[in-house]
């Protein structure tokens, strides 16, 4: 039994290493494509050409996030530590929504961010992992919304001043098609070839990865949905607070 367990662990590690190696190779090629797209956007173009290239750039960014998901999953399988560095929470949120700006406009979807003004400008945590969770959830919302809006609300759930820790609640809500009740329990499970196509489409690897990342941030994730009305994906995550809270004015931005 010990030998079998050791061999299984080695096999799993080898698969994760292969995923990581291939993902890095593809990402290197994608970086070149993104660079050339940026250079082309700096030249003289017609309005239509610029719109097309902007969509290409946005799609490249989303593809890079998928590759990052593959890398993340391989790392999650073998465990990894989250970074604990200072980052601007509002800047991070804007970076996420900027990637979906073109796609949302083409579907006449309004994007908006609402963040509690009591949340400090800078927090301590892993901004990259937070961004990847939000990319997955916001992207999912836009994919299944044909008109209306996708909104992100960020509020303080708990503040522990003695420990300099803050727990935030993120809610990504949309006015999309909604999710059948029988599919909700499967959303955050890793999809397999034996899953039906609708389950893989609604959940897929990205939501399973989001759940793992949220758990690494000492949080939880759940969804509420009504057919024909829309869905609300909510998750919590813990962050460090450094020094006195620097409070900004209430931020509400519509894209």
Architecture overview:
This protein folds into two domains: 2-77, Signal transduction histidine kinase, dimerisation/phosphotransfer (DHp) domain (Helix Hairpins), CATH 1.10.287.130; 85-254, Histidine kinase-like ATPase, C-terminal domain (Heat Shock Protein 90). Helix 1 (2-41) packs antiparallel against helix 2, helix 3 (89-99) runs parallel beside helix 5 (127-143) and helix 5 (127-143) packs antiparallel against helix 8 (204-216). The chain has 255 residues and is α+β, with helices and mostly antiparallel strands. It is globular, with a radius of gyration of 20 Å. A hairpin with a 3-residue loop joins strand 6 and strand 7. It has helices at residues 2-41, 47-77, 89-99, 101-106, 127-143, 181-184, 197-202, 204-216; strands at 85-88, 109-115, 122-125, 148-160, 165-174, 221-226, 230-240, 251-254. Helices cover 50% and strands 23% of the residues.
Biggest beta-sheet profile: 6 strands, mixed
Number of domain units? 2
Q: Helicity, in percent?
A: 40-55%
Q: Compute the CA-based radius of gyration.
A: 20 Å
Identify the strand order in the major beta sheet: 6-7-5-4-2-8
Q: So, the CATH homologous superfamily of the largest domain? A: Histidine kinase-like ATPase, C-terminal domain
Provide the succession of SSEs: HHEHHEEHEEHHHEEE
CATH architecture of the largest domain: 2-Layer Sandwich
Strand portion, in percent? 15-25%
So what's the oligomer here? Answer: single chain
**How many distinct helices?**
8
In whole angstroms, the N-to-C terminal distance is: 57 Å
Question: By helix and strand content, what is the structural category?
Answer: alpha+beta
If you consult CATH, what is the topology of the largest domain?
Answer: Heat Shock Protein 90
Instruction: List low-confidence stretches.
Output: 192-200, 246-252
**Overall form:** globular
Indicate the CATH class of the largest domain. Alpha Beta
Mean pLDDT: 78
Number of strands: 8
